[in-house]
Design brief:
Among the domains are: about 25-150, Orthogonal Bundle (Arc Repressor Mutant, subunit A); about 170-205. Strand 1 and strand 2 (about 110-120) form a beta hairpin. It has a two-stranded antiparallel ribbon. The chain has eight helices and two strands. The protein is mainly alpha-helical. Helix 2 crosses helix 3, helix 2 packs across helix 4 and helix 2 (about 30-60) runs antiparallel to helix 5 (about 130-150). Helix content is about 60%, strand content about 10%. This is CDT1 Geminin-binding domain-containing protein.
Length: about 230
């Protein structure tokens, strides 16, 4: 039988072990990770500030804010290698700040490029006043801080919101049905389809002959005999 004092000591040891096992796992963040996180916060807030200025300026001149036209400006204003991914991070944290729409741009040579039209969110009226600018800055700063507080991992980084894309028709048959093509073009496409289908049929493996050589010869002679009789009757 265990003495009372030893039993009490054993119970205390069990409690200590139980408390330590239930203690939350501590995530250690090195100095380099802290600097990287602070740098990411700074870039995101700097892009928001620069982009607000660019959009306001272009709206005043009745010009759309297309990303490919503003990328170099944003890089010069922030001194960083800004990419569309930084704007996607802002859209993930505070989607009310901007609206992004995919646009189709055609060059003089007829080449089609995809670009993105960036505008203020629907709730913001242009031109923005000082109160609006401060509110936008506070919204993004609070969203950034909240994200990293909820994600204390050493490798945490802000995700990117998906970009809208132009609707592309992958199925050629579906495109031909939707496109308003002249009758001559439609007939030409149908002729090309017929030729293509014929080539596919020719490339298919021929069926394996059934029966012996003698049996196949007798069957062939019977068919030839029937054809000759039909020709003679006609």
């Amino acid at each position: 039988m265990i003495p009372p004092i030893e039993q009490s000591s054993k119970t205390q040891d069990d409690n200590k072990h139980h408390i330590s096992s239930d203690a939350p796992f501590k995530t250690y963040v090195f100095l380099a990770d802290k600097q990287r996180i602070e740098d990411e916060k700074l870039i995101i807030t700097s892009v928001r500030k620069a982009l607000d200025i660019v959009i306001t300026d272009r709206v005043a001149r009745n010009q759309p804010t297309l990303y490919h036209q503003t990328e170099a400006i944003l890089r010069n204003m922030t001194g960083r290698n800004i990419k569309i991914s930084h704007i996607c991070k802002i859209m993930y944290l505070a989607p009310r700040l901007y609206s992004v729409e995919a646009k189709e741009l055609r060059t003089y040579g007829g080449k089609i490029n995809e670009d993105f039209l960036i505008e203020f969110g629907k709730e913001w009226r242009v031109p923005l006043v000082g109160k609006d600018l401060q509110l936008r800055a506070d919204m993004l700063r609070e969203a950034v801080d909240r994200y990293f507080n909820e994600h204390p991992e050493h490798d945490a980084t802000v995700p990117e919101a998906p970009l809208p894309r132009l609707r592309t028709v992958v199925n050629k048959d579906e495109w031909e049905k939707q496109a308003n093509l002249p009758q001559g073009i439609k007939k030409l496409l149908e002729a090309h389809k017929a030729v293509k289908q014929e080539r596919i049929e020719q490339q298919k493996p021929k069926p394996t002959p059934q029966g012996s050589v003698k049996e196949r010869f007798e069957a062939l002679r019977a068919r030839v005999s029937v054809d000759d009789n039909v020709s003679f009757i006609n």
